[in-house]
Amino acid sequence: QNIQNMLGGFLDIVERTRNAFNFTDPYKSSFVLMTLVFVWLFFAFVSTRMICLTVGLAQYLGMLAARLSELVPKRAKVTDADTSEPSPKSDKPEKEGSPVATWLRNAILSLPTEEHLRRTYFWESRCVGEREYASVASAARASRLEHLWKAQWYDSLSLRIATTGGNEKKNKKNSGDNPKWQENVFAVFHGRRLLWWNSTADFDDGELPVGTLVLAGHAGLAGLSPLEMRELAQEGEATISRIVAIFGRGKDGQQKLTCLLPTVESKDSLQSVVLAASLKRD
Q: Could you tell me which residues come within 8 angstroms of residue 257 by beta carbon, excluding any fewer than 6 positions away?
C-alpha cells in the first residue's frame, strides 16, 4: 500500500508538471512561459563564463565572511531570558522552510491531474450534451407544430382549471375546492381547441393530451374574479400581467382556464389567437 501511494504521488507530480506547460491553467502556464523566455534572454546576453565566475566568487566571499566573523569576539549580553530556566521547546528550534520553495510547492500542487480533468470534463460534457439535446428537441418540436399541426400558438405555462357548468354534483364538489396550479404544462392552440399535456416530454413522446378546451358557443376571453385578484395580488403586478383567463367547453362542461404565461409577449400572442378564434364564424 505504501509503495502504491508513493507511485501515485510521484505520478501526480509528473502529471501536474506536464500540465504546467500545456495551458491547463492559463495563468500558471503563462507565468512558466514568461519565466523561460526571461531565462533564455538572460543566457543569451550573459556568457556562461561570467556566470560561473560570479557563482565561484560568491561562494568564496561567503566562506571568507563566515571565517572572519568567527575571529571577531562577541560580547554576550545578559538578559532576564538568559537567567530563566529554558523551556523544553527551546532545545529544538523550529525550522521554517523557504518562502520560495513553499510557493513553488503550492503552485505545483494547485495544478490539476488527469483524474481531476476527467471528472471536470465529464460533467461539463454532460451539461453541454443536455443543452444540445434540448436545443435539437426544441427545433424538432417547433417544426412539427408549424408544419404538421399548423398550430397558431404553443408554449409552456402554468394552468389552473375551474369548472363552471355541467354535472351538478361535480360543480358542488369543485365549488368548495381551491384549484391548484399545474406547473410546466405544455399547451397548443389548434383551430378552435386549446390542448395541453402534463409536460413537454409527454408531447414529444406522442402522448394524448390530458385536457381540451373547445371555443364553441359561449367562449372566449374572461376576466379574473375578485377572489383570484386578491390571491394574485400577493404575487405582484408582474405576475398579473402574464395571466390570461379563457372559458369554453371542456370534458366536464363549461370550464374556465387561468393560464400563467412565462412572458408578456406569449400572453399577448395567446390573447390575440383566442380572440380571433372566438370571433370566427363557421
A: 159, 160, 161, 162, 194, 213, 245, 246, 247, 248
Max alpha carbon distance in the chain (Å)?
Answer: 119
Cα torsion 263, 265, 266, 268 to 10°: value is: 130
Rg from Cα positions in the chain? 39
Angstrom CA distances, 5 to 9, 13, 17, 114, 210, stand at 6, 12, 18, 17, 59
Angstrom distance (rounded) from CA 237 to CA 243: 10
Cell of 54: 560570479
Give the pLDDT of the chain (282 residues) as one tens digit per residue: 788 888 888 888 888 888 888 888 888 888 889 999 999 998 888 888 888 888 888 888 888 888 888 777 666 555 555 555 555 555 555 556 678 788 888 888 888 888 888 888 888 889 999 999 999 999 999 999 999 999 999 999 999 888 665 444 444 444 445 567 899 999 999 989 999 999 999 999 999 999 999 998 888 999 888 888 888 888 888 888 899 999 999 887 889 999 999 999 999 999 999 999 888 755
**CA pair distance 222, 254, nearest whole angstrom:** 13
Instruction: Name residue, grid cell 530563566.
Output: 84
Tell whether pTM > 0.85: no
